[in-house]
Amino acid sequence: MLDLIIIGGSATGTAAAVYASRAQINFKVIAKDLGGEVANSGEVGNYPGFNETNGIELSQKFNDQLKYNKVEPEVGVEVENITKEGGVFKVQAKEGKSYEAKTIILATGVRPRHLKVPGEEELYQKGLSYCSTCDGPLFKNKIVTTIGGGNAALESILMMSGLAEKVYAINKNPEFQGEQVYIKKLETLDNVELIYNASTTKILGDQVVSGVEYKATSSGETKTIETNGVFVHVGIIPNTEMVKDLNVLDKGGFVEVNNLMETKLSGFFAAGDVVNLPYNQIAISTGQGVTAFLTVQSYLNKLG
Ligand SMILES: Cc1cc2nc3c(=O)[nH]c(=O)nc-3n(C[C@H](O)[C@H](O)[C@H](O)COP(=O)(O)OP(=O)(O)OC[C@H]3O[C@@H](n4cnc5c(N)ncnc54)[C@H](O)[C@@H]3O)c2cc1C
Question: Are 179 and 154 in contact (CB under 8 A)?
Fold first, then answer.
């Protein structure tokens, strides 16, 4: 039986795995893919040690470091359920794969929340995207629409205003909620049209996105915008469905941890974007991955 299974092959998983390898414990990394949201992060100018890099390059560096430390992650493994019986964690994945370990570090991150309106699934990657840093450059000199009212939407508007000919920004609330610097900047952009109190009802298009339909909440009137691209930024969902029966999640579905990355279930640890702590950043995720491993090590030492 393994001492540790690290689930997730991105920033958090890599940091924990490098420490686990150097500590020479009996462990495995399993992940749906290597790179996770780091690979989607576009330009990265705030990760220590790099003046400027990008998500693809940084995730490649993470993979190189795994190889250097002789860690061979099992990729393409999608974990569906985790149970604990008699002090042993059983990890079940798609295609009947299963694993057993004394401890788990869950590092499965988050995914973007969907609008759940007609046209969204059909037009995904046909003009509709959840990542403006990844796909924004495809819409140079085009008309785009952002949907959302928080920091991610604000960042998307600011980025797209510098690239696109025109940006429509649909916000279902009467104001933006996010960093004041971003909100102030909005007022200075003359190619951005802000549409408040508007609830998106449909993404329009046949083969590719051609428009967005929304309802003005005050009048109930339905309106249409012609657009080439849509960027949806309406929140995130933690990838924690596989542990919903372990009683370790908060109301929002994030794993509840203390500052040692321990959950209330002995032997079960979590780190990175998937936990209920503030600020989703790569540097924070790697730090938490390290903390999680060091806590696992001390836990295993006590098990004897
Ligand atoms: C558009 C965008 C731009 C960003 N820009 C920056 C930036 O400039 N600077 C910065 O510091 N941060 C940035 N971030 C945040 C950063 O990407 C995250 O904080 C970081 O990726 C979190 O790392 P993680 O390892 O916790 O999760 P992730 O990177 O999301 O990795 C999750 C891992 O878990 C795996 N996984 C998920 N579900 C399962 C499952 N069921 N079974 C098995 N494996 C699973 C995935 O395959 C993946 O390997 C950005 C994020 C986005 C979306």
Answer: yes
| Residue among 282, 284, 288, 290 whose CB has most ligand 1 atoms within 8 A, to mutate | 282
Among 59-63, 181-185, 250-254, the range scoring the smallest mean pLDDT is 181-185
Q: From ligand 1's centre to the CA of 10, what distance in Å?
A: 6
Per-residue pLDDT tens over the stretch 169-182: 999 999 999 989 99
- 146-172 pLDDT, tens digit per residue, is 999 998 899 899 999 999 999 999 999
Element (H, E) at 7: strand 2-9
CATH entry 3.30.43.10 includes domain 2-111+237-303: no
Query: What residues contact residue 225 under an 8 Å CB cut-off, 6+ apart?
Result: 145, 168, 170, 195, 211, 212, 214
How is residue 7 written in tokens?
Answer: 């689930």
42: pLDDT strictly greater than 90:
no
In sequence order, the 6+-apart residues with CB closer than 8 A to the CB of 204 are: 119, 210, 211, 212, 213, 224
Q: Show the tokens assigned to 302.
A: 């006590």
The partner residues of 111 in beta bridges, in order of sequence, read 237
Looking at 1.10.4080.10, 3.40.50.280, 3.50.50.60, 3.30.1020.10, the CATH number of the domain 128-232 comes to 3.50.50.60
The CATH 3.50.50.60 domain(s) of the chain lie at: 2-111+237-303, 128-232
pLDDT at 43 (0 to 100): 77
Q: Measured in angstroms, how far is the CA atom of residue 109 from the centroid of ligand 1?
A: 5
pTM value is: 0.89
